[in-house]
Amino acid sequence: MTKLHIQDVQHMYLTTKSATTALEHINLSIEEGEFVSFLGPSGCGKTTLLSIIAGLIEPTSGFVTIDGENIGTSVPNIGYMLQQDYLFPWKTIKENILLGLEIRGQLTDKTESKALLLLKEIGLQGVGDLYPHQLSGGMRQRVALVRTLAIDPAILLLDEPFSALDFQTKLKLEELVSKTLMTYQKTAVLVTHDIGEAIAMSSRIFLFSAKPGKIAKTFTVPSILRTLSPFEARQHPVYNDLFMDIWKELDQLETH
C-alpha cells in the first residue's frame, strides 16, 4: 500500500533579483514500511524535498499525499530526526522524550509508559533523570530517536542524523535505527551523502542530480542485502558492486 506519493513537485526560491529552481518534476511513491534514501551532491534539493514532505514549506507546484491525504490541507503526522539532537539542556531525558506528546496533547500514562519502554529497548534504561550534557553524542541521538518515535509518526524523516558522529558510533546507530524501524514497521526517508549508508539501510535509493534537482536514477537494493543488518550488508560482495555502480553515476552527475 502506498504511504507517501509525490506528484510532479517543483520548487523555486524567489528573491527580488532572481529565481532559482531547486526541484523539478519530482515523481515517486513509497510503500508502507519501506525505507528509502535520497542521495546526491550538495545543492540537489534533497533537504528541500524533505521539508516539503514534512509540510514545512509548500512546493511551487505539484502535491504530496500521505495515506491519500494532501499535506497541503492537513497537518502531516511526521517524525523529523536531524543531524543535531536538539535536546533541551535544561530538561531531563524523560522530559525531552515526552515533549512531543505533551505539545500534541497526547501525553497519557499509556503513551508515557510506551516511550519509556522504547528508551529501555534501545539500551538507555536508567537515564531518564539525567540531563543531555551527561550523555555521549551517540546516546543523545538515541534519545532523539525515542522522542521522534514516541509520537507514533506515520513517516520518519532522517536528515543526515549520523553525520556528526564518529564512524564506530555511526555504524552502531545505523544498526539500532534499522532494527527499531523494522520492529515498529515504520516508513522512513533518509537524506544522506554517504553511499554506503544508503545501501546498508535502504530498499531503494533515489539518486538526485543538481541545478535543478531531479531524480536522475533509482537503484533497487538487492533482496540479499535487505535481509542483512547494515553492518553485515557492508561485508557482502553485492554491496561492493552496487557501491561502485552508484559511485560512477554520482561521479558523472558531479562532472556534468
Automatic annotation (TrEMBL):
Q: Give any Pfam family that matches.
A: ABC_tran
Spell out the InterPro entries in the cross-references: AAA+_ATPase, ABC_transporter-like_ATP-bd, ABC_transporter-like_CS, ABC_transporter_ATP-bind, P-loop_NTPase
- Tell me what organism the protein belongs to: Priestia megaterium (strain ATCC 14581 / DSM 32 / CCUG 1817 / JCM 2506 / NBRC 15308 / NCIMB 9376 / NCTC 10342 / NRRL B-14308 / VKM B-512 / Ford 19) (Bacillus megaterium)
Q: Which UniProt keywords apply?
A: ATP-binding, Nucleotide-binding, Transport
Mind telling me what this protein is named? ABC transporter family protein
Starting at the broadest rank, the lineage of the source organism is: Bacteria, Bacillati, Bacillota, Bacilli, Bacillales
Q: Where is the signal peptide?
A: none
Q: Which GO terms describe its molecular function?
A: ATP binding; ATP hydrolysis activity
Q: Does the keyword Nucleotide-binding apply?
A: yes
Q: Which Gene3D superfamilies match?
A: P-loop containing nucleotide triphosphate hydrolases
